[in-house]
Specification:
Length: 293
């Protein structure tokens, strides 16, 4: 795979289209040292950006919570995102808009730092191995927990929140798992390292944790809407790890993960059942509705 700093094309950077290799970030940028950076991840399907406005709205929410004032309007960011996708001619890929504090100050305080904004995009396939879409992935349970909601701005997509996700995923992969299930500060099931989680019970109902200390994913909300349109009951509630043996199915949702079945959590096995495959198929049809039309 080509390293991301060696790719070709343009990056939207502070309202200019800059050659990919010419984009510079100073080593003393506040965003690098103090994780004062917010970002989003979007998918492009058949040349169309899925739920662009919702992602941009969340980017601005994250920035506000992190006391970062983005020097553009949401409309300007939406237009810039469409522009860079068109310039790069991305048909099926990923988009990463992000904003961070610059290098004008180097300490915890950052009131006088410049806010930089960049938007990058590239062709990108499935997050997990495609065959795992039918076989299911395997999860361990991380030793790291999602922080309590009064300790960090948990409802943001901010860089610092992902440090323990990286640690958790590295450990999982070293031990032969695909990803890691993370618990919340109370010891209840929260999410995977970059995706929300759902369970199916013996009665065909779905159960998913209440997002009160982790991100309420846009894909999560979309899948809940799809499930309800199929008269599938969705229970949003606290879920204890002790309940894992009572479920018969499990899957993850996320912009990168899309709808990915889970076949195993530690020693607990789950079936990749028709209900999960049908939700995955319905989600695929939704994101590619332009081609289907």
């Amino acid at each position: 795979m080509t390293p991301y700093d060696k790719r070709e094309g343009k990056i939207w950077y502070n309202n200019d289209l800059v050659d990919w290799n010419d984009v510079k970030l100073h080593v003393l940028s506040h965003g690098l040292h103090y994780a004062s950076c917010v970002f989003e991840g979007l998918r492009v399907y058949d040349g169309e950006i899925f739920k662009l406005e919702e992602h941009t709205e969340r980017l601005f929410h994250s920035a506000k919570r992190m006391d970062i004032k983005i020097p553009y309007s949401e409309e300007e960011i939406n237009k810039a995102t469409k522009k860079i996708v068109s310039v790069q001619n991305v048909q099926n890929g990923y988009v990463r808009p992000f904003a961070w504090r610059g290098s004008e100050m180097m300490a915890v305080s950052a009131q006088k730092t410049k806010i930089h904004v960049a938007i990058t995009t590239w062709e990108w396939g499935t997050y997990f191995d495609p065959k795992l879409k039918t076989e299911g992935i395997k999860l361990n349970i991380s030793k790291w927990r999602r922080p309590a909601p009064n300790t960090i701005p948990w409802d943001t997509k901010a860089s610092g929140l992902y440090m323990i996700c990286t640690l958790s995923k590295h450990e999982a992969e070293r031990d032969g798992y695909t990803d890691s299930l993370m618990l919340d500060h109370e010891g209840n099931i929260a999410e995977a390292t970059g995706a929300n989680i759902f369970f199916k019970d013996k009665n065909g109902e779905l159960h998913t944790p209440i997002p009160d200390s982790f991100l309420d994913g846009i894909t999560r909300r979309t899948v809940i809407e799809i499930a309800k349109s199929k008269n599938i009951k969705v229970n949003e509630r606290k879920i204890s790890p002790k309940e894992l043996p009572s479920f018969v199915g499990c899957f993850l949702t996320g912009t990168a993960a899309e709808v990915t079945p889970v076949s195993k959590i530690i020693e607990q096995n789950y079936k990749v059942c028709n209900l999960i495959l049908d939700l995955s198929d319905s989600y695929e049809k939704l994101v590619r509705k332009k081609r289907a039309a």
